[in-house]
Amino acid sequence: MPSLTFYGGVNEIGGNKILLEADDTRLFLDFGMSFNVASQYFAEFLQPRKCTALADFFELGLLPDIKGIYREDYVKHMGRPAEECSVDAVLLTHAHADHAQYIHFLRTDIPIYCTDATRIILQAIEETGSNPLSDLITACDAFTFYMNKRGTLSRVTRRNREFVHERIFHVLEPEDKVTIGSLEIEMVPVDHSLPGACGYIIHSAEGTLVYTGDIRFHGSNQALSKQFVAKAEAAQPTWLVSEGTRIESVQQDSEAGVKSEITRLIARAQGLVFVEHPIRDLDRVSTIFEAARTNNREFVVPIKLAYFVEALGDLAPFDLPDVKLLVPKKSWGLIDKAGIDWHLVEQDYANWEKPFISRENAITCNELRNNPKHYVVSMSFWDITQLTDIQPKAAIWIKSSCEPFSEEMELDEERKRNWLDRFGIAEYLAHASGHASGPELKAMITEINPERVFPVHTEHPDLFTAFFKNVELVEPGKTYTL
Ligand SMILES: [Zn+2]
Ligand SMILES: [Zn+2]
User: Fold this and answer.
1) 279-328: per-residue pLDDT in tens?
2) Which of 376, 408, 379, 409 is nearest to 288 (CA)?
């Protein structure tokens, strides 16, 4: 009989790591980081130690101690004997860290199945991120030496290409059905706050399992979620693993409402408009782009977003030449100094940033300072120091992202407000969540009508029992035979 074991995503929002076993086939549904558990023990300047490989993660329950799934370099460094690979695949629903980040720790010979956009986003995170846990597309051997040209030993870095291993990715298209061992897998796209999100319908000899991933019904791709529900219902599933992030909320969000609010706020603005938003939520990026355009302003994006738009190509809502790129002062800040050799200017930037800083549509803070009413600027708290360079007058800041949900985030929010106060910037809110509301989840589950529901990715799984008869209140690490 097939079984499910939940190693994350239980009584918490995110961290999904769900092991599905059927006959000889074993696969993980997502392999994400649990922010909840991590923040119980760690903070910005107190992180799990790399030198222990996996030991800190095992000790504190951030990763399950399962044989045959972790990378060989880490296992070896812990003094453990070599292991045989013990899972057949990982199915990723999307590239958010709480679903995908911890594939960093997995063996590179475990095939990863996901959508094209998910693979592109993981690649962008690996290439542009500063997170040390981002061996997502490739993995570089850690704790490994090589004989250098001088005949002495050196530590391996990413420059030693022979020690960098490509992971095995299988990109899934809608309607594709793939067989993994005794299971038949169907990827079904859904609407969420990140491109390329999907759910899965998995057929075994004993019945069908549906997994929602993260899902919503109010974004610009809401038709996808409706099709997902129709397909899931038609599959007459025995089991449904459903997200429940907003099960307690009756608030009806709408991306269209966010667009009209941002459009209205820009129309009233007397100076520069800043918009704070999740950088990879392309639905939101598209919303802001169009709101700016309606008001005859140009959208200005940071280099990281520019990189992302270019990597996504046709999957992105606009071409890079349609917007302006904001090149910030970095390192020595030579970008806006006259008469400096370009080769020296470039040294202020990371390799992946260099191709962008000389683009025709690249601008600096000086332009924003001189022509504030021409622009709408994508700006995060982490780039807020640029206000010193911009010296905005009568500017507004639109917060188009979720409310803080941890003490650390609240402190950052307070720091942000201090910056805004200092520059006399008024703040407004315009946001819609990446997740379905309680009534929408109820309607979805009623329509799919599985035999049994496993709520995950929620702090309130008990609320599912109010409207559905056969709800399993999951315990972490316990195996449920289906
Ligand atoms: Zn999530
Ligand atoms: Zn998500």
Assistant:
1) 999 999 999 999 999 999 999 999 999 999 999 999 999 999 999 999 99
2) 376
How far is ligand 2, taken at its centre, from the CA of residue 357, in Å?
31
Closest CA to 122 of 15, 280, 345, 354: 280
Report how far ligand 1's centroid is from the alpha carbon of 98 (Å). Answer: 5
Total count of residues recorded for the chain:
482
Can you read off the two tokens belonging to residue 44? 């910005």
Q: What ranges do the domains of the chain cover?
A: 3-248+435-481, 255-429
Exposed e or buried b per residue across 302-324, where buried means at least 16 C-beta atoms within 10 angstroms of its C-beta: bbbbbbbbebbeeebbbebeebb
Outline where 210-302 has alpha helix (H).
Answer: 222-234, 255-268, 282-294
pLDDT at position 268 is 98
Q: What is the pLDDT of residues 452-467, one digit of tens each?
A: 999 999 999 999 999 9
CA of 319 to the centre of ligand 2 (A): 25
- Measured in degrees and rounded to the nearest 5, phi and psi for residue 243 equal -70, 155
Q: Which residue, 242, 252, 174, is CA-closest to 219? A: 252
Distance 314 CA to ligand 1 centre (A): 25
Q: What class, spelled out in words, does domain 3-248+435-481 have in CATH? A: alpha beta
End-to-end CA distance of the chain: 7
Distance 116 CA to ligand 1 centre (A): 19
Cα(329) to centroid of ligand 1, in Å? 34
What superfamily does domain 255-429 belong to in CATH? Metallo-hydrolase/oxidoreductase (3.40.50.10710)
Can you list the residues of the chain whose pLDDT is less than 70? none
Could you tell me which residues are beta bridge partners of residue 189? 198
The pTM of this model reads 0.96
Residues 6+ apart with CB under 8 A from 256: none
Q: Which residues surround ligand 1, an ion (CB under 5 A)?
A: 14, 98, 214
Same fold across 3-248+435-481 and 255-429: no
> What six digits make up the tokens of 137?
């597309």
Please report which ligand is nearest the Cα atom of 246. 1
